[in-house]
Write a structure and sequence with these properties.
By secondary structure, this protein is of the alpha+beta class. It has one domain (2-139): Pnp Oxidase, Chain A (Roll), CATH 2.30.110.10. Helix content is 17%, strand content 44%. The longest helix is centred in the C-terminal third of the chain and has 13 residues, at 98-110. It is globular, with a radius of gyration of 15 Å. The protein starts with a strand and ends in a 5-residue tail after the last strand.
């Protein structure tokens, strides 16, 4: 089983496909009490430079990241549970384009044209960008 570890700021091309499947990530943030908080999320990526997730303002992960932007996310290949990519970085949060982004991600995960819960949400959507400051990729041999 190959391994790749870097601080270079990029997810290796050999593992980017994991972020383009219907893979679920598990994001870990730090709460105000110092305890970790983990939750499953849909994932996307920014040309291998960052993992993107989408959430609502006021969710625990969003509140935690505003207080402490240090974050880790691990994404397992749904076709091979021994192949994964893990990214650590300091998250940035933005509302810009977040509604369009959740529609785009919902097309992949739900096979729908538009995210079906827009009308039920009172809070604005947020894009969380996790830059690939530290990357671990394991599984089939990497090519970089």
């Amino acid at each position: 089983m190959g391994a790749f570890e870097t601080h270079s700021g990029r997810i290796p091309e050999s593992h980017r496909d994991i972020l383009e499947k219907r893979s679920f990530g598990h994001i870990a943030t730090i709460g105000s009490d110092g305890h970790p908080h983990s939750s499953p999320v849909w994932v996307d990526h920014d040309d291998g430079e960052a993992v993107l997730i989408n959430t609502l303002r006021g969710r625990t992960k969003e509140r935690n990241l505003r207080t402490n932007p240090k974050v880790s996310i691990s994404i397992v290949d749904p076709d091979d549970p021994y192949r994964y990519v893990s990214v650590r970085g300091r998250a940035t949060l933005s509302e810009d384009g977040a509604d369009e982004h959740i529609d785009e991600v919902a097309r992949r995960y739900l096979d729908v044209e538009e995210y079906p819960h827009h009308d039920e949400e009172d809070e604005p959507r947020i894009i969380v960008r996790i830059p690939a400051e530290h990357v671990v990729a394991r599984g089939r041999e990497y090519e970089e």
